[in-house]
Amino acid sequence: MTKIAFYGSSLLSSYWNGAATYYRGLIRQLARLGYEVTFYEPNVYERQKHRDIVPPSWCRVVVYDGTYEALKEVAAEAANADVVVKASGVGFEDEALLDHVLAAARPDALKIYWDVDAPATLAELREQPDHPLRRQLRKIDLVLTYGGGDPVVYGYRGFGARECVPIYNALDPDTHHPVRSENRFACDLAFLGNRLPDREARVDEFFFAAAFKLPQQAFLLGGSGWMDKPMSGNVRYIGHVSTRDHNALNVTPKAVLNISRASMAENGFSPATRVFEAAGAGACLITDAWAGIDLFLKEDEEVLVARDGQDVADILAGLDPSKAKEIGQRGRERILRDHTYAHRAAEVDSIITRYVRPPRVEAAE
Question: pTM of the full predicted structure?
């Protein structure tokens, strides 16, 4: 059995941790393919106080203190793995963690840097000639990314990566699926996302501006950090929403809005987990425009695409519940057919197999 040591932000908590469902979907499917995965996450940002799930049967989870000594102890366990994964954005001493993990890994182990925010990372690399990752890439066998398409692949290769492969977000149909609607999430348009520096201006444009233009319609805002944000009276803020409530939040509103972070919108080919979660639940999804959306959902049939806040307002004003339901159903069918984590895990398995379990060559008789 191939053993994977995976160092990431958190598998157990989605609190200030948008990658949680991505990790869960992929690792669960990798376990079904026979991998033995241990996930190491630091106890920082109060994530352990806001757990969404209990430690699962399909992955061993090690929570370590946010101290340098604890970091070194868990990094040393990389020596026991056939595949060593260090994700970006762990949240505590990322550069030191990568150094220690690479130092501890066996020479024959596959060493992966898994970037869950590749456009932003590449921007940092371009701006900082002395960025530690430039040096660390020489010791890494493979870069996997949350998405990003060719711009990210060529970007990483330009900085010396031996190989870079996007592994896109997807749907875990066992976790995100249609459920009964709940009155607490009733509205015309819902947006769920944490308040982040490179997203806020786009939320102002696509969500708050649209709400201002449609005073007779009800808007729902979920996510952390928005409590002191000025907003119109038709916007109801509900704070952090546990992943256990995402299905109800997605199926109840007439439509659900996705707003990409600025770097991902500019790069393109970077669908957020929310795209697949909402579509998987059968929500009528309105998304901001970005290059590559057609690779995942067909515009006007499986998803509605807005170029700005006025587009959001116009779409919502002309959207009746029956049309919204039809779009949501078609989107769900497409995601189930082409974009589940079983699809993504099969991609990862084929990549790992090339490195860790190369095909046997039979001797000629």
Answer: 0.91
